[in-house]
Amino acid sequence: MSDDRLDHLHELAEEGAAFAGRARAAEQRASGATASDRTGAVTVTLDDEGRVSGVAVGSGWRRLIGSLALDEAVIEAVRSAGERRFEAWGDAYADPGPAPAAGFDRDEFTRRLQDAVTGSGPMSAEDSQAALRELLALVESIDQGLDEASAALTGALAATWTGRSPDRKVQVTVTGGGDVTAVGYDRQWLLQAHEINIARQTAAAFRAAYEEAGRHGVREIVADSRLGETQVLAQDPVALARRLRLID
Asked: For residue 41, which of 72, 84, 82 has the smallest C-alpha distance?
């Protein structure tokens, strides 16, 4: 492998580490994003994956929006919270990336990878060849996994899934990508229900919808494809280095 390609590999490692660090920082900042609809009748909170984790309905909601507009207010609040979450992501990515994770020396990893490729350094010939075979296998897994998952992911992201509250008075529909497409209420029940119960049942319907989508969602498709193994290794650079025999 030429020095130029090794330099490029080093640059990719640096960029990847920086990107991963910013992603972790962004996730921390975006977690707990909260927003309301324009009237303040409904407030929702998102978790670190952008899903609705909490719902609050104000005591004067009927006066503010009327009983027929609660579904629209919930969707509006979810979208507003999503916008705040993306703003938090943007702020985090504008900051410098954090220091590398403790216990993992990125420069040492890159040096040992270069030694494996060139056959120089303290690695034995057997370990060097084994590292190259493992690296090639990972690259092939990524390539094959992308082919396996691409068609399935397209369908999963577009599909919709519906969850219902325990008393079936509220239902929520989400896409495979987590976007909320519809919220429905039993109108007769809604006329008399207390706002605390409305909020609790709405949050339960969201959880049920996410669970239903999760059974057929992106994570499951990726995990079942060849990308699953490489995804785990990408999230654990120490495990990757051990697999390639670059560290003990």
From this structure: 72
The amino acid at residue 182 is A
Write the pLDDT tens digit of every residue in 111-121. 555 554 454 55
Cβ neighbours, 10 Å, residue 130? 16
Concatenated DSSP letters of 146-168: HHHHHHHHHHHHH-EEEEE-TTS
Quick one: tokens of 34? 């909260």
- pTM listed for this prediction: 0.62
Contact status, residue 208 vs residue 165, Cβ threshold 8 Å: yes
Which secondary-structure segment (H or E) carries 224?
helix 218-224
User: Per residue in 154-170, pLDDT tens?
Assistant: 777 778 999 999 999 99
Token pair for residue 114?
């270069």
The tens digit of pLDDT for each residue in 94-151 reads 665 554 444 445 555 555 555 544 545 555 566 566 666 666 666 666 666 666 666 6
Please give the Cα distance from 202 to 43 (Å, whole number).
Answer: 12
Q: What is the dihedral of CA 142, 145, 149, 150, to 10 degrees?
A: 50
| Of 56, 75, 16, the residue nearest 209 (C-alpha) | 75
DSSP annotation of 20: H
